[in-house]
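Hi R.,

As promised, here are both runs. First protein below:
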Amino acid sequence: MFLAHGGPINTPEDVKVILANTDAHGFVGASSLERMAVESSLTALTQEFKSLEI
């Protein structure tokens, strides 16, 4: 299982591009989600990430 993490991956849209163009099976948000909470509701952001399909 391959997971994407870090670097320029900051939004659900970024993850969507990664999942569409690589063999990654998912995304590990880790501390990047903490930074995003300031910009957007953490709950809404998490729901967006969870709605992405591989």
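And here is the second one, sequence first, then its structure tokens:
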Amino acid sequence: MIIHDARTRSILHVSGRLDGINKIAHYENPNRGGEQIRSITSVLKNDKGEPEALLCINVNFSALDTAVAVLTHF
């Protein structure tokens, strides 16, 4: 997971866990190797409810897709 500062457009944190996120986007796209990546981007708000950062989670599901394909042949 990566947290981006919405004001400075810089990376604040890589990895970890946060509560109180507001999901704004979910999408799939291929990575450079052609594998399907699933991504979720959320807005993190401050105590006043103002957007302060973006949380981006990117997950490569190619290994799971391969496992499902193998298991369906049984």
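A quick note on the second one: Strands lie at 2-5, 10-14, 22-30, 36-45, 51-60. Let me know what you think.

Best,
J.
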